[in-house]
Write a structure and sequence with these properties.
Mean pLDDT: 92
Largest sheet: 2 strands, parallel
Shape: elongated
Structural class: mainly alpha
Oligomer: single chain
Helix content: 55-70%
Radius of gyration: 22 Å
Number of helices: 13
Length: 324
């Protein structure tokens, strides 16, 4: 994830981070804080530095283990930018232009104000992947197009210069509960939405409680799962199920005869039971920047060792003379 906010939200945690924690036990995992990607749009240097540490602290607090995985900042591994330049030189302007996320982001801000970095960031993303020679890359459906570009660039390089890159396959993450905005339950929870609709990991408990108590429902006060006719209630049930581990059917049965106030109270209690320990541990880590930076440095060393091997092979294949 990009460190572009001071807190992860509940959708980030349930949709991605919980999967990443589990995957550490089965894979040799590399988890990157995408700070190079974060500067493709205007940003404040102090905020970027603070948000990078805050994001790292939440990863660690949620269970990313630096003994098992490499957790590192993209900018501390120079090979990311170096390989991205090589891939820029074999990527076509047309295929970069077809990336739908660039179209969406540039249309919102205006194409004339979009940076070249924003245009080419899928190629940097390809470098992020290919440096580590992965067999599988955990992605959601919204990133499938970018992974296809990565595969195309890997195959093109291998064809022109000889076998160099592993061509990665998508590891589609197991479907988790879709977490929607508390105020607009037809839209996914996002840091770009109105703050009142987003449950942030780092928020004070009283703030989280107030947001859940103020979640949109409807007028009939019947607790049942019906996304089309009761999107707000269904979203609360989905959140409750995701954080409690109970099925929606079981929760509806347990809440039979109760009202929306009861539902919101139980959802708030279940959410806080999950995120309060993460928030408190993250704050402990943030109280000691030196130790947090040390852990990230260890991850960067581990990542750099493999990245430099790949980059040296790439440079040899394309004809660069190594420094003596």
């Amino acid at each position: 994830m990009q460190p572009s906010a001071d807190s992860l939200h509940l959708g980030n945690y349930l949709g991605a981070l919980t999967n990443w924690v589990k995957m550490q036990d089965d894979f040799n995992a590399y988890y990157m804080l995408a700070d190079l990607h974060a500067i493709t749009v205007p940003q404040d240097p102090k905020e970027l530095r603070d948000n990078t540490r805050r994001t790292a602290a939440q990863y660690l607090a949620a269970g990313i283990d630096p003994e098992k995985s490499a957790l590192f900042m993209q900018s501390q591994v120079p090979a990311h930018a170096q390989l991205a330049w090589v891939l820029n030189c074999i990527a076509g302007f047309g295929e970069a232009s077809r990336m739908t996320q660039f179209k969406d982001k540039s249309q919102k801000a205006g194409a004339d104000t979009a940076s070249v970095g924003l245009f080419t960031y899928p190629i940097l993303q390809a470098a992020d992947i290919l440096l580590y020679q992965p067999k599988k890359v955990p992605v959601g459906e919204d990133q499938r197009q970018h992974l296809e570009l990565t595969r195309d660039l890997a195959e093109r390089f291998n064809t022109r210069f000889g076998k160099t890159f592993t061509v990665p396959e998508a590891h589609i993450l197991k479907e988790t509960a879709k977490i929607y905005d508390l105020q607009n339950p037809e839209s996914k929870m996002s840091k770009s939405n109105e703050p009142k609709g987003t449950i942030n990991i780092m928020d004070d408990s009283a703030v989280t409680l107030k947001k859940i108590k103020g979640a949109v429902t409807d007028l009939d006060n019947e607790i049942r799962f019906d996304v089309q006719n009761k999107p707000g209630v269904s979203n609360l049930l989905g959140i409750y199920s995701a954080v409690s581990g109970k099925s929606v059917v079981q929760l509806v049965s347990e809440l039979s005869g109760k009202g929306y106030g009861d539902l919101k109270t139980e959802v708030a209690d279940a959410v806080l039971a999950v995120i309060e320990p993460i928030r408190d541990r993250a704050n402990e880590l943030l109280a000691n920047h030196d130790e947090l930076d040390r852990l990230l440095g260890l991850g960067a060393e581990r990542a750099n060792a493999l990245a430099e091997q790949t980059l040296a092979d790439v440079y040899e294949k394309i004809g660069f003379i190594p420094r003596k």
